[in-house]
Amino acid sequence: MIKRRKTRPVYVGDVKIGDDAPVIVQSMTDTKTHDIEATLDQINRLYQAGCEIVRVAAPTEKDALALSEIVKRSPIPVIADIHFSPRIAFIALESGIHGIRLNPGNINDEGKIREILEECKKRNIAVRLGVNSGSLEEKLLEKYGYPTGEALAESALNWSEFFEKVGFKNFKVSIKGSDVLQNIEANKIFAEKTDIPLHIGITEAGPAGKGSVKSAVGLGILLYMGIGDTMRVSLTADPVEEVKVAYQILQSLGLRRRGIEIISCPTCGRIEVNLPEVVKKVEEKLEGETLPVKVAIMGCVVNAIGEAREADIGLACGNKSAILFKHGQPVKRVSEEEMVDELLKEIKSMKAEK
Ligand code: SF4
Fold it and tell me: In this structure, are 36 and 146 located in the same domain?
């Protein structure tokens, strides 16, 4: 069991982050925010995939003005990314938004930041305080030479102190760099010094395949250390993929369970069925299933019995057939042609039982 870092609670709308809440999964839309229907359509797809908080970009006034309609119709809390502009921040705050993302390093005007925080406090709006390697303050760049993990943590600690000094506590922090080790170091230093919840992510991780691996390594290490109250996997892909990968990472560490977890063997010379095809079909048919079920699909009986015992349901394949297991007990023998349908039928009945 992973012992999670003790943090104070922060609420984005009705979603609790930190304290005893599970690691909350976030994503970000890639539509033009002023295209309200397209944005809401994507938010709904993200919600169906398990996204719990969504961020939308508000780079222009036109986008910020679309927020009130989006907030009204979104099934999950919405955070506005206000980039460099305090003017846009104020439009967003009036829209009823649940949270804003603010990179003080981008605004670089303590007076303006204080004004935004006062408005957030008045309206009970949460803030994500963002520190990025690309917008680190000059004085820290001079001190450290480049954006080291230590430099990023120092920036986040300094701004957190500023937020608290002006009486604002409803915030979480994200410290992001695209380098995995820099990221881990920065979050670790920050986590040791405060109880402020952390939003973790590897920024600009890359395309779906490589980016998922990079995120799994970077975020997996942090989560294993108990660090991370909410997370986003950043991929150059459909944002729904980000949500799926986030749950896979959390599932691998036993931190969340959602949907089907498939345990399948790598196959070898013992195989006597087309296992990759069976796994592909099962994956496709169970796409979007939210019932947390562990399914073992093994090529032969060598490891199958043991794996099937750990799984909720499984197939131990043999010569053009398989033994269907449920909760570690053999249920029946099925042919290669019928094994996918039989497995799905059993999962359906498990769902009905629940
Ligand atoms: S489960 Fe059987 S078929 Fe699959 S890799 Fe192991 S030994 Fe090979």
Answer: yes
Count the domains in the chain.
Answer: 2
Identify the helix (H) or strand (E) that includes residue 221. Answer: helix 208-224
Long-range contacts, 220-225 (Cβ 8 Å, 24+): 220/249, 220/252, 220/253, 221/180, 221/184, 222/183, 222/184, 222/187, 222/188, 223/2, 223/23, 223/249, 223/250, 223/253, 223/255, 224/2, 224/253, 225/5, 225/188, 225/191
> What is the DSSP code string of 237-248?
S-HHHHHHHHHH
Given a contact cutoff of 8 angstroms between Cβ atoms, the answer to whether 10 and 170 are in contact is yes
Chain segment 323-348, per-residue pLDDT in tens? 998 888 889 999 999 999 999 999 99
State whether 48 and 111 are in the same domain: yes
- Does the beta carbon of 306 sit less than 6 angstroms from any atom of ligand 1? no
Q: What is the pTM of this model?
A: 0.90
Whole-number Å distance, alpha carbon 214 to ligand 1 midpoint, is 28
Residue 232 Cα, ligand 1 centroid: separation in angstroms? 35
Give domain status of residue 1, yes or no. Answer: no
